[in-house]
Amino acid sequence: MSSLSDILQTAKDSYTVKVSSVLNRNVKEFGKKFLLDGREDTCWNSDQGSPQYIQIVFNDNLKINIAEIRIMFQGGFAGKECHVEVNGYCDKKLEFHPEDNNKLQCFPMILDQCSSLKIVFNQSSDFFGRITIYQLQILTSEAT
After folding, report:
1. Torsion sign across C-alpha atoms 82, 85, 90, 92
2. What is the mean pLDDT of residues 47-69?
3. Which CATH class is domain 2-139?
4. Residue 97 near residue 107 (C-beta atoms within 8 A)
5. Which sequence spans correspond to the domains of the chain?
6. Distance, CA of 59 to CA of 138 (rounded, Å)
7. 15 pLDDT exceeds 80?
8. What angle do CA 33, 29, 87 make, to 5 degrees?
9. Which residue, 38, 52, 83, 94, is most buried by CB atoms nearer than 10 A?
């Protein structure tokens, strides 16, 4: 039996996060820290243009087995034609297809031995290519 835990909450000092852009460079209101604060009233908002991405790099020698990625978009600013790149390899892509809504969406995927992952939003439901995310969770499987 296994349970899922959010590595972004349980191991906060074990990774770094980079994002492609921040709306109007306003990191105080829309920066990457709001992806991980667990609140539904704060968000990361990208600037316009495609593609946009979120990159997570785990600290030295840490290899993560990912079971699921969860994302809560703002409707009208959701990713389209999305994929995950593992360990910096563009040829190791796993596609996923979010809906354009405000719900927490779950994307099951088996990604073993990840030292980094890049979530790429090739297009957006927004005409200008902006992405707005209120929550991001990376769930790992742990033995119980």
Report:
1. negative
2. 93
3. mainly beta
4. no
5. 2-139
6. 15
7. yes
8. 30
9. 52
